[in-house]
Amino acid sequence: MFLFSGLSLLLPAYVLVTAQAVPQTIHLQSRIPPAAATLRRRALDPVTVPLADFFLGTDLQWFGNITVGTPPQTVSVVFDTGSSTLEFASTLCGASCDNQVKFDSSKSSTFVDRGTTSSITFSTGVGVDPVVGANYRLTLRSGTDTVGIGGLTVPATSLFLITNQTAKFGIDPFSGIQGMSARAQGLFAGLIAQGLPSLFSLFLTPQAVGNAEMTVGGIDTTKFTGF
Ligand SMILES: *[C@@H]1O[C@H](CO)[C@@H](O)[C@H](O)[C@H]1NC(C)=O
Ligand SMILES: *[C@@H]1O[C@H](CO)[C@@H](O)[C@H](O)[C@H]1NC(C)=O
């Protein structure tokens, strides 16, 4: 059982090369609750989703499904503690994404094309693949759409469609990356804004055991004893 709080960065699958470990300052202040405190939002309940294991000689990465668009299309993503954005293969991507399920933005009534193109380069965490540099490169186009996980949804979530990728990404049995870092934007920031506790936990098992899970917004206390 691994527990991740908002400020932990453990087991990164992919890490943005440009990311810096900058100390974070949390500004605290006390204040008198406003008279309309009864309007305070109700916290969302945690949700648990199954994870599949990317096994390549050893247990490498655990991935699961989110939904994107209206009607929702299923997009498989690795939940990555080393990055903070969401990007996944799209029908704008040619042969380099042919191994993956591609999201079709033209079939989503809520997709908004933001039109900005960019590229990002990743390195990987220890034990995944010690390659640094242009071997892990994604070309992206920005947009927004409704994104969901485990039945929770966030409208107008920032995301990036993959329009090209290097072969290192082409072998992945999932279509994209959902960043979970302390500075995660998009889906998780949106869920926290809706009242979901800023916490997630992972039950990571070897492939032979299976039934790995991620709980978003809480901890599955049935998965361990003695905490
Ligand atoms: C993701 O969804 C697909 C169906 O679209 C399903 O076959 C697969 O088992 C799901 N993966 C996980 C980890 O839940
Ligand atoms: C995709 O990227 C590869 C390099 O990984 C490049 O050779 C190719 O020209 C690019 N394709 C497009 C359509 O940009």
Automatic annotation (TrEMBL):
Residues 1-21 form the signal peptide. GO terms for molecular function: aspartic-type endopeptidase activity. Keywords: Disulfide bond, Signal. InterPro entries: Aspartic_peptidase_A1, Pepsin-like_dom, PEPTIDASE_A1, Peptidase_aspartic_dom_sf. Belongs to the peptidase A1 family. PANTHER family: BETA-SITE APP-CLEAVING ENZYME, ISOFORM A-RELATED. This is Aspartic peptidase domain-containing protein. It comes from Mycena rosella (Pink bonnet). The lineage of its organism: Eukaryota, Fungi, Dikarya, Basidiomycota, Agaricomycotina.
